[in-house]
Amino acid sequence: MWRFCIYIISAFLFVSCNQAYTAKKPDVLIPEAKFEELLLDITLLKATENFTRSEEQTNKVTNVPDFIKNKYGYDSLTVLQNNMYYSSNYKEYEKMNNRILDKLKAMKEAK
Fold first, then answer.
1. With a threshold of 0.85, does the pTM exceed it?
2. Rounded CA separation 97/40 (Å)
């Protein structure tokens, strides 16, 4: 009886662990190149939080949702849905992040 239970549990775990999660395509799909730019801007804005002098400056500089809305015209929910969609394909998302890191390195070397 115990062996049977172990086989059933093992089969259940094997089947459940093999199911890959893929997010559904969002209603408003941000093109990949534009989404990379958006992620780069978010990264730069988050980095400024460490270098601003006061809380007032931090709020002016790093209000990310307002910045994204003003610059790109996307609300935070759209950005979140697109992030879930792109990140569900790990290999492509990793390539995207590597391109962002390359851009950051190029910016640093340009100084």
1. no
2. 9
